[in-house]
Amino acid sequence: MRLIEIACKERLKSILHNEGLRYTSQRQEIWNELLESKEHRDAEEIYYSLMNRGIQVSRATVYRTIDMLVKNNMIEKLDIGDGKARFEYNDKYKHHDHLICTACGKIVEFYSKNIDKYQREIAKKNKFELLHHSHHLFGICEDCQ
């Protein structure tokens, strides 16, 4: 097991303990599913992915675990405007923003040094301490145009 996997597992155990929840192999599998995925998936997609891999887990456990992971900033919740929340691993060392197609739901990650620069300048000008930001740009992707 790689060092980062051990650290993530220990962090998960610590957060579960603080939340008064038991560490289980099902909760670990839910965390692994989110940690290893490059996609932005909703809870049902995560549930079915686990089931298709032969992991027996209840929907309730998937939803409760996801809520706990969001609450503890281990994953991010994305609202793309279609009524279904999407989730992704919160890699605080790899910041990115999102382009979202309102026709098909496609999500493209991007990073812009200029956006980061301008938002710091705007925050400073207005005497704000910038803690975090999230940009979701909505439009129509090339395939749907």
Write up what this structure looks like:
The protein is α+β, with helices and mostly antiparallel strands. It has 2 domains: 3-89, Winged helix-like DNA-binding domain superfamily/Winged helix DNA-binding domain (Arc Repressor Mutant, subunit A, Orthogonal Bundle); 97-139, Dna Ligase, domain 1. Helices cover 44% and strands 16% of the residues. The protein contains 5 helices and 5 strands. Helix 2 (25-36) packs across helix 3, helix 2 packs across helix 4 and helix 3 packs across helix 4 (59-71).
List the helices and strands and how they pair.
Elements: H1 3-18, H2 25-36, H3 43-52, H4 59-71, E1 75-79, E2 85-89, E3 97-101, E4 107-110, H5 113-125, E5 136-139
Parallel strand pairs: 3-5
Antiparallel strand pairs: 1-2, 3-4
Distinct helical segment count: 5
* CATH C-level label of the largest domain: Mainly Alpha
At the third CATH level, what is the topology name of the largest domain?
Answer: Arc Repressor Mutant, subunit A
- How many separate domains? 2
- What is the count of β-strands? 5
Q: How much helix, percentage-wise, in residues?
A: 40-55%
> For the residues shown, what is the average pLDDT?
87
How many angstroms separate the termini? 45 Å
Which percent range describes the beta-strand content?
15-25%
Poorly predicted residue ranges: none
Shape: globular
**N-to-C SSE string, H for helix and E for strand:** HHHHEEEEHE
Label the CATH architecture of the largest domain. Answer: Orthogonal Bundle
- Report the radius of gyration as a whole number of Å: 17 Å
Structural class: alpha+beta
Strand order of the largest sheet: 4-3-5
Say which CATH homologous superfamily of the largest domain is assigned. Answer: Winged helix-like DNA-binding domain superfamily/Winged helix DNA-binding domain
Largest sheet: 3 strands, mixed
